[in-house]
Design brief:
Strand content: 25-35%
Number of helices: 10
Distance between the termini: 80 Å
GO molecular function: ATP binding
Bound molecules: adenosine-5'-triphosphate
Largest sheet: 6 strands, mixed
Keywords: ATP-binding, Nucleotide-binding
Domain ABC transporter: 3-235
Radius of gyration: 22 Å
Shape: globular
Protein name: ABC transporter ATP-binding protein
Strand order of the largest sheet: 6-7-8-3-9-10
InterPro entries: AAA+_ATPase, ABC_transporter-like_ATP-bd, ABC_transporter-like_CS, P-loop_NTPase
Length: 273
């Protein structure tokens, strides 16, 4: 399913937190949204799953304005895995993943064998099968995040939105998540803080800064040291190949840093004569 943001502005708290963003996402591609805290990544994504209505502009799924869809059609089209999954779920892991099937049910419909198969597959892909009977509230942050991915996968929507999906995951599970996401063949939009994950697993990256979309394209072409420096205020060294760079970051050295002496000079009187 193709996703288009056409000239989207989102105004919240009296400020344009997304300003005139336009972006075309091809079906089946994985797109990473990167940018500093507060740059508008989540706000832009929220317009896609209708948690926020654009103040200006249109978001389209295969040409259709998402605001015109029924709730059920929207839920069948777009699944969401949020940054901080809720902790107050009074449900088991399996029951939670089954919630992903709700948009496929008729009113008061019962779980079918297809639902159970899809849920079992989603739990297998996310390594949550062993947790099936655990209550979600008792899980660690990373386990809970994997359950929320399983629920989103079980929704079988052509579009998947991941808002900082790896913030609780250990390194191995971060790579597993991105490999899983890539293997789905769905259209994926993911807000990511880890530029190394973005460059390795995304087909395209989109850079937001201060609510503006400042660059978009193939990751290795877009994420230049210069862009990283100006957007994120860090120094970066690039290792690896031009096509598959690996970034090492360090704090940007400013003129103010250089002016601060690292050691107090010894007073004259204490210098041995
Ligand atoms: N409901 C709201 N009311 C007022 N301002 C909001 C609201 N939601 C978000 N904002 C502001 O909009 C700006 C963009 O926030 P957003 O969450 O989209 O950024 P982000 O790039 O996802 O940030 P992060 O990397 O920290 O998750 C921020 O300045 C935020 O404080």
């Amino acid at each position: 399913m193709r996703v288009n943001f056409d000239d989207v502005t989102v105004r919240l708290g009296g400020r344009d937190v997304v300003q005139r963003a336009s972006l075309a996402v091809e079906p089946g591609t994985v797109v990473g949204l990167v940018g500093p805290n507060g740059s508008g990544k989540s706000s832009l994504l929220r317009t896609l799953y209708r948690a926020v209505r654009p103040t200006h502009g249109t978001v389209r799924l295969d040409g259709q304005d998402v605001q015109q869809l029924t709730g059920r059609r929207a839920a069948r089209a777009v699944a969401v895995m949020l940054q901080d999954p809720p902790t107050d779920f009074d449900l088991s892991v399996e029951e939670t993943v089954l919630l992903g099937r709700v948009p496929h049910h008729a009113a008061f419909g019962r779980d079918t064998s297809t639902d159970l198969d899809v849920v079992a597959d989603a739990m297998r892909r996310t390594g949550t099968t062993e947790l099936a009977d655990r209550m979600v509230a008792t899980l660690s942050g990373g386990q809970r995040q994997r359950v929320m991915l399983a629920r989103a996968l079980a929704q079988e929507s052509p579009v998947l939105v991941l808002d900082e999906p790896s913030n609780h995951l250990d390194i191995s599970h971060q790579h597993e998540l991105m490999t899983t996401v890539r293997s789905l063949g769905r259209t994926v939009l993911a807000a990511l803080h880890d530029l190394n994950l973005a460059v390795r697993y995304c087909d395209q990256v989109v850079v937001l800064d201060g609510g503006r979309l400042v660059a978009a394209g193939p990751p290795a072409r877009v994420l230049t040291p210069e862009l990283i420096r100006t957007t994120f205020d860090v120094d970066v060294r690039v290792h690896g190949d031009t096509d598959a760079p690996v970034f090492a970051f360090s704090r940007l050295t400013t003129a103010a840093d250089a002016a601060v002496p690292t050691h107090e000079p010894l007073p004259e009187s204490s210098v041995p004569g």
